[in-house]
Specification:
Layout: E1 5-9, H1 13-25, E2 29-33, H2 36-45, E3 50-54, H3 62-72, E4 77-82, H4 87-95, E5 100-103, H5 109-146
Parallel strand pairs: 1-2, 1-3, 3-4, 4-5
Amino acid sequence: MEKQRILVVEDDQTVKKTFKEILEKEGYTVETAENGEEAIEKSNINIYNLALVDIRLPDMEGTKLLTMMRETTPKMRKIIITGYPSLENAIEAVNKGADGYIVKPVLDMKELINKVKEHLKKQQEERKYGEEKVKEFIETRARELED
């Protein structure tokens, strides 16, 4: 199985570098983007399993980027990262397509790693379920055609 790919969209250089290093040590292929425009360009070229998206980017709100990324990579899991946690932010993030929500500063990197692993596992389960449904449909259809 090929390495799972993660896109970190973060304008804070320290946070971006830290997340990249931690996730690469876990065996993921990690790319970064400093703003929404760069993230869209990269997601048009590459397929990512998961994106960690800062809620406040220099060129757009992270929640707007979530909506745009849904168009380029619909099955990608998306986790919003925010240093400005609020109920309103959380609700908006979920409504715009976030699969998760992490509050900065991330003091426990195990929490970040566990959240990433959890979402990638859900993605694999969804893919497996979809493949099983397609197989079931084809088998049923083949039986119908034989009759």
